[in-house]
Amino acid sequence: MPQPVQYRGMTLIVPDNDSEWTEFYAHARAHRLVVRKCTACGLMRYPPTHACPWCMELEWTWQELSARGTIYSYEIVHHAIQPGFRELTPYPVVLVELDEQRGQPTPDEALRIIGNLVKPDLTPEAEANVAIGRRVRVIFQDLADHMALPQFTLADEAAPGRVWRLPE
Amino acid sequence: MKTLRDEYCIVGVGETEYSRASGRTTRAMAVEAIRRAILDAGLTARDVDGMLDYQGGDSTLANHVAPDLGIRLNFYMDVMGGGSSTEALIGLAMGAIEAGMCNTVAIYRSMNGYSEFRIGGTGARAAQPVRGLDLAQVPFGMRSAGQNFALTFMRHMYEYGTTSAQVARVKVAHSRHASQNPKALLKERVTVEDVVGSRSIVKPLLDSCLETDNATCLIVTSAERARDLTRRPVYIMGVAGRVSKPRLDFHWAHGPITRVAGYYAKDIVFGQAGIGPEDVDVTGSYDAFTFTTLLQLEEYGFCKKGEGGQYVSSGIIELGGGRPNNTSGGHLCEGYTHGMSMVIENVRQLRGTVDDYCPRAAEGVHTYDYSPGRCRQVKDAEITMNLGWAVPPTGSALILRR
Asked: Across the A/B interface, how many CB contacts are shorter than 8 Å?
């Protein structure tokens, strides 16, 4: 069994029998963002789940994504709960809507994923640069030989729609 | 859907003091709250034969609480969970009695939510290993309730133009109510400027509830049994428990993320009760944060979706307004009880015996003077509603009448 990963004072545990996450993190460590794709209805889902939430099918394959998306919502943590995050405050948490499968199978559904918005050096992005509507891409933060976290960084692309941030 | 409207009642309520240093066990507090509720109902230990409680590994189970009071149980169950369990367990108590398993159920929640297991997630809870579904959020510094909920409200501000000053009015209203409540931890009235200018924990959340040590209890029995009691019962018109959005594993996948569970619960609870939001005199919309109150009032139809900011800013949610919310001061100001105190408050409102500063409050004599340090009884309250919150995708609801 792989050793638990120590990250910012947290113990992250992904045992060999973690049938949801083990392969996801192996792909992430190879710097590939993957999600599960149902072999019956073809819809993709995140986080990794055992059955398809739309058709109950148990068969699936890993599907690699473009790892690009748009900030759908965000928050700025000013008071950290986990001690290991105190030195990072204020840090942004972003909910990103990935480019694949937007508005499917219903208009309000999408592949959305949570991460930190970071600079290319993996330190927190400045609060003034965080906004709903901005384009982002995945950047992988290596934690161990078998594990990396998918994070997000601002992409050098024009925002396709409205860009909004919390008024000061 | 089936309804048991008016066939079950809440006949007793009780609580300990609200503090930040109880200095005693959750067992001791639970026993005290249950004893008070039994006495409040005019019952004895022999009359209670069912027990339900909820907790998150931070409390004492029913099998150690009931014997302290000499209660022999025909039914009991300890449930994992926090907010929105209150209303769900009231419904389960009705079901247990309806099934013939028992006659009268005491429901309790006991926690040293500040001095021992901090509800906010700091201390020992912050150090728990991260595995399974938690890996999708916690490694990114998203562990506490505030961190878990903030994305929902930020998107609401984006979609509907809701402002910080608007949602601050929830705290302003609840602080005014708390100033009329001898039990409240925070009795000082605050202004919108106080709230907007306060230190940020997570943006955009603008105020959080108060971690508190306390125990609370409600007693549920059949209307038939309640008729023998001296105190006028409060009738249960409708109940919905832990109603959820799709994709409860990761509700962000199924939007709109500004939609919360009340969207799905409202038809169940109003359908049972046979009434609509316009018939409700007092609301108890769970205020883990100011915005949780606002979003739930929208979903249950007290205003249109997206107009919660205007609704809470209109004065309607304040004592003296058309439909006051959380007249005890709620979790923001009275103290955090995982929802129980909001039901207790509504029971007392319907009885006309809210424990404010009116000298003859216990006899139901009130001044209806809502200036600081006076009255918080709503005149002639007939119907109340609780909008219970667990997380954005899970909630419960309860409609009561006198």
From this structure: 137
Q: In terms of Cα–Cα distance, which of B212, B174, B244 is closest to B338?
A: B212
Topology of domain A5-154, per CATH? OB fold (Dihydrolipoamide Acetyltransferase, E2P) (2.40.50)
Whether residue B204 and residue A75 make contact (CB cut-off 8 A), yes or no, is: yes
Question: Are residues A74 and B151, on separate chains, in Cβ contact within 8 Å?
Answer: yes
Give the structural domain span for B226.
8-116+209-401
Is residue B351, in this structure, part of any structural domain at all? yes
Rounded CA separation B111/B337 (Å):
8
In a domain, B175, yes or no: no
Domain boundaries, chain A: 5-154
The strand pair at B75-80 and B50-55 is best described as: parallel
Is B344 a member of any domain? yes
Cα dihedral B337, B340, B346, B350, rounded to 10, equals: -130
Among candidates A73, A116, A132 on the partner chain, residue whose Cβ is nearest the Cβ of B141: A116
| Residue A52 contacts residue A38 (beta carbons within 8 Å) | yes
Q: What is the pTM of this model?
A: 0.97
pLDDT, one tens digit for every residue, chain B (402 residues): 789 999 999 999 999 999 999 999 999 999 999 999 999 999 999 999 999 999 999 999 999 999 999 999 999 999 999 999 999 999 999 999 999 999 999 999 999 999 999 887 777 777 789 999 999 999 999 999 999 999 999 999 999 999 999 999 999 999 999 999 999 999 999 999 999 999 999 999 889 999 999 999 999 999 999 999 988 899 999 999 999 999 999 999 998 999 999 999 999 999 999 999 999 999 999 999 999 999 999 999 999 999 999 999 999 999 999 999 999 999 999 999 999 999 999 999 999 999 999 999 999 999 999 999 999 999 999 999 999 999 999 999 999 999
Instruction: Return the structure tokens found at A90.
Output: 């204020």
* Number of separate domains in chain B: 1
Q: Which residue of B has its CA nearest to A80?
A: B141
Closest alpha carbon within chain B to A143:
B139
- A50 class by beta-carbon count within 10 Å (0-12 exposed, 13-18 middle, 19+ buried): exposed
